[in-house]
Amino acid sequence: MSPTHAPTSARITRRTQLRATTATAGALAELDTPARAVAGRGARLGVAGLLTLAALAGTGAAHSAAAAPRALPAGCSGTSTITCRYAVAPGNYDVTVSIGGASAGQTELWAEARRLMLPATRTAAGAVATYSFTINVRQPEGQPTGQGGTGNPGLDLRFTGSGPQVSAVSVKPVAQPLVAYLAGDSTVCDQPAAPYTGWGQMITTAVRPGAAIANYGDSGESSGSFLSNSALLPALLSKVRANDPVFIQFGHNDKQTSASAYRNNLTTMISRVRAKGGVPVLVTPPVRRLFDGNRLTSTALHVNGVGVNLPAEMRAVGAAQRVPVIDLTARSKALVESLGPAASAQLFLRSSVDGVTDNTHFSQYGATQMGGLLLQSIREQNLPLAAHLR
């Protein structure tokens, strides 16, 4: 499982809220300069049932704008896609952007290796809307082992959409945000190129400033290989601070792992995260789209090649170690089976749309749905990240 390709437009299923502020012309200065903005109105991002990450409406108030388009902020270039690059060291940064301009526009913001920060957001002619995020920067970008490319040093921002607009960008280092770490495989990771998308790339829209997602998911990893590769769990643990949650999802590539080895691998990860003061959270793997009639097969539900029911083993480890468990297997099973063999195809990759048929990896829409199920469980269990969700 080492694909590196997500459709460029997410299917938005519910309107939400991201903190937005109104700003006068030139309200934000450029890199490392404080924002001067007036508090505006926003809405709270919620996840209910199968409706997941939502569009962030451009709620900034309209202002009269000059007839000529405003110049792009320093470090930014382009038109149909606006790319901004900042030569910052690895770490965590508070990023504030103002979108909008003299004409109406629609803008999405992607950071680093295709982490969606701002879904398609409309601004009226003359309106400016301001949004803030905390973004984790590392080198290499994307997958920690460099699969699919290592990206550029520093921070990359890409403004896309139908008529993207950006009038100001502020980037400031932040010393000790809450960082939620993701340990997983290709269904989790920052996939660098469309159409493949990990759910870790989609949950970033839901996180308030002051908390960041650090995605150490990597294609093809099993519970054992993630433990042993110095670029993966050891690298993740070197960054973990007290109370940082670490979400651990493995199973897709544990095809021949015995029950005892799987339990031992998970238990070792838990103990090492706890030793650093972090908060381990187990996530059972999302299902594959493999049907027998209208029901998913045992392979789809991660009973592996040697007969081990991996989600059941993970749940047992969680109970024994008193670790929270997000049962993404059960939640995704309910979603996929409710859609049925035909409609559930949109969650995964289809030859007619994506140029490939793949019943394990997600489309951007599917990754958004899976991320929504995860966020729903975080809220329901009041896990450490819950207080930092929009």
Task: Give a description of the structure.
There is one protein chain. The protein is an alpha+beta fold and 390 residues long. 20% of the residues lie in helices and 24% in strands. It is built from seven helices and 19 strands. The strands form five sheets. It has a five-stranded antiparallel β-sheet with strand order 2-1-8-5-10, with no helix packed on it. Strands 3-4-9-6-7 form a five-stranded antiparallel β-sheet, with no helix packed on it. α3 (259-275) packs across α4 (310-321). The longest helix is centred in the last third of the chain and has 18 residues, at 364-381. It is globular, with a radius of gyration of 21 Å. The two termini are 32 Å apart. Mean pLDDT is 86; it is low at 2-68.
Compact description:
With 390 residues, the protein is of the alpha+beta class. Helix content is 20%, strand content 24%. The strands form five sheets. The chain has a five-stranded antiparallel sheet with strand order 2-1-8-5-10, with no helix packed on it. Strands 3-4-9-6-7 form a five-stranded antiparallel sheet, with no helix packed on it.
